[in-house]
Amino acid sequence: MAFKHISIAQTLELLDKEDVVIADIRDPNSYQAGRIPGSEALSNGNIAQFMMEKEFDQPIIIVCYHGMSSQGAASYLVEQGFEDVYSMDGGFTAWEASYSEKVER
């Protein structure tokens, strides 16, 4: 099983409907400067704790800058047994460009 790609519009829909986890893997300064509301910062330093706290069937959307690095992180979570993992295409850059009113600062 592999991770799935998700658009920013689909991410917005899921945020309104499900108990979805948004895991932001950008650097701490970028995360503090602006993020998707309700997202969690995810790094090598806290990934073990993150994985212990999440359910394997819970939807997890990985967000990076442009939708590239998130693919590797999403693959890693799938390898660890998570079943519903997405990489958000376009990353936070696309989210901010389309949904600037939905950026938490």
TrEMBL record:
EC assignment: the record states 2.8.1.1
- Pfam family, any one: Rhodanese
- Could you tell me which SMART domains the record lists for this protein? RHOD
The record's section on InterPro entries has: GlpE_sulfurtransferase (IPR050229), Rhodanese-like_dom (IPR001763), Rhodanese-like_dom_sf (IPR036873), Thiosulf_sulfurTrfase (IPR023695)
The catalytic site is made up of: C64 (cysteine persulfide intermediate)
Its principal location?
cytoplasm
**Which keywords does this Swiss-Prot/TrEMBL entry list?**
Cytoplasm, Transferase
CDD domains, per database record = GlpE_ST (cd01444)
For this protein, the record's PROSITE patterns field holds: RHODANESE_3
The cellular component terms of Gene Ontology attached to this UniProt record, alphabetical and capped at eight, are: cytoplasm
Molecular function (GO) terms for this protein are: thiosulfate-cyanide sulfurtransferase activity
Q: Where in the cell is it found?
A: Cytoplasm
Top-level taxon of origin: Bacteria
Q: Which residues form a coiled coil?
A: none
Q: Which reaction does it catalyse?
A: thiosulfate + hydrogen cyanide = thiocyanate + sulfite + 2 H(+); thiosulfate + [thioredoxin]-dithiol = [thioredoxin]-disulfide + hydrogen sulfide + sulfite + 2 H(+)
Q: Ranges for the Rhodanese domain? A: 16-104
Entry's HAMAP family? Thiosulf_sulfurtr (MF_01009)
Q: What family is reported?
A: Belongs to the GlpE family.
Role: Transferase that catalyzes the transfer of sulfur from thiosulfate to thiophilic acceptors such as cyanide or dithiols. May function in a CysM-independent thiosulfate assimilation pathway by catalyzing the conversion of thiosulfate to sulfite, which can then be used for L-cysteine biosynthesis.
Would you tell me the protein name for this molecule?
Thiosulfate sulfurtransferase GlpE
